[in-house]
Structure to design on (197 residues):
């Protein structure tokens, strides 16, 4: 294995900070400094982070115990294509479905406000729950009758230290029509007429 020689850079810190750093003897402060400098330089060269999003899973939940509403539970993968760790600050989502005629029907918007570190050249994830009220379920059901349908998720990602947000549409997540019909039955209720309004 080839040994990579890297030049040394000296940094100065206040005595109080050095004393606090010494309490964490297991930490590689050189690695932390390298990451911070690389992130700063990359953000100065291009204010938009070099990442990529992919859809992983989508599930319909007739009653989410945490939120108290029916909705969609969606998993998104975040690929960091840069040579340093990043901190994803927040992700804003807008979800639409593509109905049987090919038209786009809005479902709703939500945000994942949980900060997470995604390692250099590695993959992280985001999971969010999108509540869908009964009236919206009934409205969508008018256009979803016989075919499995796709969801399109418009994502805006904010990464610490980068001045511009990253925007991408995620495609390919599908909901089987049978799963949708069960979802409608379990949320709207058997006693209501669905899809005829």
């Amino acid at each position: 294995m080839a040994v990579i020689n890297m030049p040394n850079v000296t940094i100065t810190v206040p005595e109080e900070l050095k004393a606090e750093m010494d309490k964490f003897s297991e930490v590689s402060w050189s690695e932390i400094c390298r990451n911070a400098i690389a992130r700063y330089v990359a953000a100065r060269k291009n204010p938009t982070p070099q990442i990529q999003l992919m859809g992983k899973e989508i599930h319909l939940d007739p009653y989410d115990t945490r939120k108290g509403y029916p909705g969609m539970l969606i998993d998104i993968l975040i690929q960091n294509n840069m040579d340093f760790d990043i901190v994803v600050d927040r992700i804003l989502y807008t979800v639409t479905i593509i109905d049987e005629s090919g038209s786009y029907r809005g479902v709703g918007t939500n945000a994942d406000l949980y900060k997470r570190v995604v390692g250099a050249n590695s993959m992280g994830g985001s999971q969010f729950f999108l509540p869908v009220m009964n009236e919206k379920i009934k409205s969508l059901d008018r256009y979803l009758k016989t075919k499995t349908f796709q969801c399109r998720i418009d994502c805006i990602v904010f990464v610490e230290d980068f001045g511009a947000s990253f925007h991408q549409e995620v495609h390919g997540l599908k909901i089987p029509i049978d799963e949708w019909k069960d979802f409608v039955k379990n949320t709207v209720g058997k006693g209501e007429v669905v899809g005829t309004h």
Confidence is low (pLDDT under 50) at residues 190-197. The chain has one domain: 48-188.
